[in-house]
């Protein structure tokens, strides 16, 4: 999806597709918000703000905001299709994804910082096969991580 040079991600064509699909999620899912996001050489990080259930304008009709699983499934399907069609026929995402419910402004700001500074810490990243040591951000993040989800296949 790219490479890290000087602490910054240099996305390749696949990384650009991923970035574009991410940016267009809010068009497909009108009731979500997108926050911090970064493409890394072999994974991504992003914050998606999802809504709650609401009553549709038609009397008596219940509707609901998309679930995180709906959004991630769509993101993976669209980006996979475009990458396979145009650049890498064997491209696959990992089966699962990790989620964390952000409960306060302090946590939100810390996670934003983690995401936006992730390229600077690539040499410490647990997803980097050549990582030299552990990232203190990972220790903090793992202290409340909820774990992988199976919904997005």
What features would you describe in this structure?
A hairpin with a 4-residue loop joins β3 (33-39) and β4 (44-49). Strands 1-2 form a two-stranded antiparallel ribbon. It has a two-stranded antiparallel sheet with strand order 3-4. The chain has a two-stranded antiparallel ribbon with strand order 5-6. The longest helix has 19 residues, at 68-86. The protein has four helices and eight strands. It is an alpha+beta fold and 153 residues long. It has helices at residues 13-28, 68-86, 105-116, 136-142; strands at residues 2-5, 8-11, 33-39, 44-49, 54-55, 62-63, 97-98, 148-149. α1 (13-28) packs antiparallel against α2. The chain has a single domain, classed as Alpha-Beta Plaits.
Key features of this structure:
single chain, 153 residues, alpha+beta, Alpha-Beta Plaits, two-stranded antiparallel ribbon, two-stranded antiparallel sheet, 4 helices, 35% helix
